[in-house]
Each structure stands twice: as structure tokens, then as C-alpha cells.
């Protein structure tokens, strides 16, 4: 018998719900991915680079042209200048970047603070490094940080705090003031920060994303992670990046070079070309997804689900307490998928200790208009 290093890990909820949706023919609003393609010019660029000899290993740190484009973007959006040689690393997806950052600094016995509900990859990554997650719940309705609980959770073994804004699954966003408050709380303690900002451009109602990159007191101890998959509607390309001060980047790269060594060459070339030619894509993205959020929410006004419009990400939480208060959210998700043809994600799976009586499921609105209309019609009929 093998003794598992991750005895509590099974198949992820995203795989489970997507498989169930396919099996029963439900509209899949569960796992977060668009049902439309990324820009034609971007896809053409990959084909071009595959056909034109860009098929061998790129530099371990990422293609210089792509790191430069990321550098331009960071200057334009966050007003920061980073050394693209020593502070930016291109990775095969944000998940790998987060894993490498954790492996680079967490040792057996270290504690890592995560905010619940928390993204599913963090805890196994910490466990494999020999660390232990300390779960600090966000406030139940607003998903804001409970500063007292956070302060109480920080102790001598705390080595890292994981941030995620805009936040999956709630869509909540941190403000610049939140980041300043966190920096003040950490003070001079020897604590690293991983800031998962994969939804940095999916933020609505004119609000600007507060990046850890723009908060000097946090950035000097931080690994800031993003994903081209979300930003360019190509989740299956699994390409992301991590920005960290030179000393942290050096340690991260020691891990990265033996986990994957590098990202995928033609995809990096294509992203570099596309970012240079179409900077407006990033300016248009919040409006593009806000229109989808608003269409979907307008349609759901006619349903018995209760919700407030999500401020970020492409996820909308809905409360079903008026519909099936007797069902927990896992059973509700199964019921909605099998009986009503719309697959969703139960929120309790993102918690160490689920909130009692919370009746929330997550719906992904990164979908074509006809998909959203068809799904909303089914949801309104429940
Ligand atoms: N972090 C969060 C919060 C996510 O929702 C996701 C996406 N699915 C990731 C990380 C992983 O991104 P990637 O697909 O680039 O590994
Ligand atoms: N991040 C995606 C979500 O939250 C899922 C990615 C995955 O399946 N690993 O739905």
C-alpha cells in the first residue's frame, strides 16, 4: 500500500462538475473558462510561430520579448518599473508559479495563512513543502478581511500569507488601503506574501485593481502571480508569470527550472506579438466582462436566486436559500446540474470549515450571450 503524501486530496470539484455537466448535457457554468475563443490574431500568431521554427526550448526565465511586454504593462497599469531580467519569470500557468513560490521559501513546520474561501491549489502546495495552512475566514457576506482574526493568526511560525484579489470564488476585491493595512500588520516580521492576481483585469464598475506591485512595503517580500489564460481567454494554454524582487526571483527560479524548466515557446512568442500590437485588449477587458456580468445579472433578476453583482472575476455568487434551504450547496449543485441543466460550483468546498447555513453556489459568466441567455432561462425556471 502506498502511503499518500496528500491523503485528503481527491479529484478537484472543477473536474468533477465539468464531467457531470458533460455526462448529463447541462450548460457548464461550473469550472471557470470561456466558451468562446481568444483573439483570432493571437491564435494565428501561435500557428505562425509553430510553422516558423519557434519550437525549441525558450530561455528558462521566459522569452525576453514577452518579459518586456509584461514590464510595459506593469508600468502602464501600476506605475512600477521592474527589472525584466531579474524580476519577471514566465511560467507554464499561474498554478505552477504559485507552487514554485511556495516550494522556494516554505520549510517543514512553517505556517502559511490562507483566507477561506480559498483556491484549491494552495493547501496541497503548502503540504508538499512540509508547511501547514492556517485558515482565516473572510467575513461571511462581504468576503472582507477580518483584521482581528488575521492578527490573531500571525505567530512565530508564520512564514507566508496568500492573497487573492480579485478573489475566487467570491469576486471580492482588496483596496489599496487593505494592502497598506496588511503591510503595517506584517511590519518587520519575516513573512513572505504570494499575491494571486490572475483576475487583475477582470474588475468592474470603474474600480482600479490594487496590485501588490504598487505597494512597496508588500512587494519587497512578495511573489505576484498572473495568468495569460484569464486575460486572453485561453485557459488551456497554461501560461502565466510571476514578478518578485531579484533575491526572491532567484530562489523561485531554482525551483521552476526543475519543475518544468520553462514555458511553451510558440505561445510565448505569440503573446509577445499580440501584447505589442494590441495593448487596447487590456483596456477593453473590464468592459467586455462587465457587459456579460450585467446581462447575466439582469436576466437573473427574474429568478428566485439572490445576489449582489460581483465586483471582480468572471464568477457570480448566488444565494439559493429561498429555493432549496433544505439542501447543502454540494447537493444543490448536483440537483441544479442533473435536474435543471445548469452546472455550478458549491462554495463550501473552498473552506476548511464551511459556514453553517451558507447557501451559495458559484456561476461562471465567461460565456457567449446565447449561453448566458439559455442558462438564465433555466435558472429562472427553478
Ligand atoms: N489562481 C486562481 C484564483 C484561479 O482561479 C486560477 C484558475 N483557474 C489559477 C490560479 C490558475 O491559473 P492557471 O490556469 O494559469 O494555472
Ligand atoms: N480556476 C478555475 C476555477 O476556479 C479552475 C481551474 C481548474 O480546473 N484547475 O473554476
TrEMBL record:
Q: Could you tell me which residue ranges the Aminotransferase class I/classII large domain spans?
A: 27-379
Q: Does the keyword Methyltransferase apply?
A: no
Keyword check for Transferase? yes
Q: Which Gene3D superfamilies match?
A: Aspartate Aminotransferase, domain 1, Type I PLP-dependent aspartate aminotransferase-like (Major domain)
Please name one Pfam family that this protein belongs to: Aminotran_1_2
Cofactor or coenzyme needed: pyridoxal 5'-phosphate
Q: Keywords assigned by UniProt?
A: Aminotransferase, Pyridoxal phosphate, Transferase
Q: Which InterPro entries match?
A: Aminotransferase_I/II_large, Kynurenine-oxoglutarate_AT, PyrdxlP-dep_Trfase, PyrdxlP-dep_Trfase_major, PyrdxlP-dep_Trfase_small
Q: Which GO terms describe its molecular function?
A: transaminase activity
Q: What superkingdom heads the lineage?
A: Bacteria
Which residues belong to the signal peptide in this entry?
none
Instruction: Write down what this protein is called.
Output: Pyridoxal phosphate-dependent aminotransferase
What is the protein's species of origin? Pseudomonas typographi
Amino acid at each position: 500500500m502506498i502511503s499518500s503524501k496528500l491523503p485528503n486530496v481527491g479529484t478537484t470539484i472543477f473536474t468533477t462538475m465539468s464531467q457531470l455537466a458533460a455526462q448529463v448535457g447541462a450548460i457548464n457554468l461550473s469550472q471557470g473558462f470561456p466558451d468562446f475563443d481568444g483573439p483570432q490574431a493571437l491564435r494565428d500568431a501561435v500557428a505562425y510561430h509553430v510553422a516558423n521554427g519557434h519550437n525549441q526550448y525558450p530561455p528558462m526565465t521566459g522569452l525576453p520579448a514577452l518579459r518586456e511586454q509584461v514590464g510595459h504593462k506593469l508600468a502602464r497599469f501600476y506605475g512600477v518599473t521592474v527589472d525584466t531580467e531579474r524580476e519577471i519569470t514566465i511560467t507554464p500557468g499561474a498554478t505552477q508559479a504559485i507552487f514554485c513560490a511556495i516550494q522556494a521559501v516554505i520549510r517543514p513546520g512553517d505556517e502559511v495563512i490562507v483566507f477561506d474561501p480559498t483556491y484549491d491549489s494552495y493547501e496541497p502546495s503548502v503540504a508538499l513543502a512540509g508547511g501547514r495552512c492556517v485558515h482565516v475566514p473572510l467575513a461571511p457576506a462581504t468576503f472582507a478581511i477580518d483584521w482581528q482574526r488575521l492578527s490573531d493568526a500571525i505567530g512565530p511560525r508564520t512564514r507566508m500569507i496568500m492573497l487573492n484579489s480579485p478573489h475566487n470564488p467570491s469576486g471580492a476585491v482588496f483596496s489599496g488601503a487593505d494592502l497598506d493595512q496588511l503591510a503595517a500588520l506584517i511590519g518587520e516580521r519575516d513573512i513572505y506574501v504570494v499575491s494571486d492576481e490572475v483576475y487583475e483585469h477582470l474588475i468592474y464598475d470603474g474600480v482600479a485593481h490594487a496590485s501588490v506591485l504598487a505597494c512597496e512595503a508588500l512587494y519587497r517580500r512578495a511573489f505576484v502571480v498572473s495568468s495569460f489564460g484569464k486575460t486572453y481567454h485561453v485557459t488551456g494554454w497554461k501560461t502565466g508569470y510571476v514578478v518578485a524582487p531579484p533575491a526572491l526571483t532567484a530562489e523561485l527560479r531554482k525551483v521552476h527550472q526543475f519543475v518544468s524548466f520553462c514555458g511553451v515557446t510558440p505561445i510565448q512568442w505569440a503573446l509577445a506579438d499580440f501584447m505589442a500590437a494590441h495593448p487596447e485588449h487590456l483596456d477593453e477587458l473590464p468592459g467586455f466582462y462587465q457587459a456579460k456580468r450585467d446581462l447575466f445579472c439582469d436576466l437573473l433578476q427574474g429568478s428566485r436566486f439572490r445576489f449582489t453583482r460581483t465586483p471582480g472575476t468572471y464568477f457570480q455568487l448566488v444565494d439559493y436559500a429561498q429555493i432549496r434551504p433544505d439542501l447543502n450547496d454540494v447537493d444543490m449543485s448536483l440537483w441544479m446540474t442533473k435536474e435543471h441543466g445548469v452546472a455550478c460550483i458549491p462554495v463550501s468546498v473552498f473552506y476548511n470549515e464551511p459556514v453553517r447555513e451558507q447557501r451559495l453556489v458559484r456561476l461562471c459568466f465567461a460565456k457567449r450571450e446565447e449561453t448566458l441567455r439559455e442558462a438564465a432561462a433555466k435558472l429562472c425556471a427553478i
